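Residues and backbone
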Amino acid sequence: MAKKTIDQIDVRSQRVLMRVDFNVPLDDAGTITDDRRIQQALPTIKSVIDRKGKLILMSHLGRPEGTGFDPADSLKPAADRLAELLPGVKVTFPSNDCIDAAAQAAVASMGDGEIVLLENLRFHKAEKKGEADFASKIAAYGDIYCNDAFGTAHRNDASMFAVPNAMKGKPRVAGLLLQKELKFLREALANPQRPFVAILGGAKVSDKLGAIRHLSNTVDSILVGGAMAYTFLKAMGKDVGSSLVESSMVSEAKALLEVAAKSKTDKHLPTDHLCAKEISRMAPTEVHKSNIPSGWRGLDIGPETQAEYGKIIRAAKTIVWNGPMGVFETKPFDMGTRQVAEAIAKATKNGAVSIVGGGDTAAAVEKFGLADQFTHVSTGGGASLEMLEGKKFDSVAVLDESN
């Protein structure tokens, strides 16, 4: 069932308490190095302030210990950037604490069309613990609750679950970004056009095990890349040299391969590898098929695998991708990820629906200048992966259903 969204309710003169994901990267000087998460929240933010709602924004940033204010994790740079993006809109950042008297006073004195951004929720341990007392103090700020933070939708933090629970009886709606994420990652995948192809990469089998299990018998093909491939190849008895292997997962990987052999989904592992003895732009490289010699590390899928995967991708009508094919941050080990990205972009141009998971995968397509050539690039790495695993999110379930 679809969720009611912020644009479906009257917000004029109402206090809209909105959870956003402003967990943006900062350099040592406290300058934002990538403001995409703020930019992606703007449609929902503008929906409220353009209709003269009073908007209270809350978020986390970084991984503070929950022991109080830490300037390194302050949301002040996000407040400053938001003000730059919304000229003419009053953006207030009241204090170093999201529930102190100054924050409460700032909310109480808001005018229509104005914004208050609260300080980092995770300066309180109660946020991660989902504590009801903390949630009730936050909930008191709002007449309407709006969740637009897909990046943390898989977590039951206080602001994601306990706060909307404390606001029972008041409107509890999805933001436009959350709605978009749910549309592609849940609804579009429920009835995909076929062939349906899943591409899974990254370092650890343990991170993708649930997704592989859930997608088996659902997708037509699963293409595996990244360092996680070497755990599977090790389980098959292949020599993988000094490649990264999750030793504790080898037996699990072997069992999964045995189950996969009986499923209707085709599983593809790399047949060749771009190898080096170290991760360095200047390191000598070799392409190895089948077995990798001792001392060499598989750092990217090889040209044969790139061609095979590209052929499968270009014929697909629905594509989901989570995890790079190699160490894309360092040339020449970016080529496998780049080739997969370009194949998906071509399939999308030809009418396929393409959904890219967040995190490293989103960073890769952004680096390659291809982000605008996919149907949807998710804002949440962990959340998108858990949705591919078929998990249900309490933070979404608590929101009002659309009539």
Residues 90 and 114 are 5 Å apart (CA to CA). The chain has two domains: 6-177, 184-388. DSSP finds 15 helices and 15 strands in the chain. The mean pLDDT is 94.
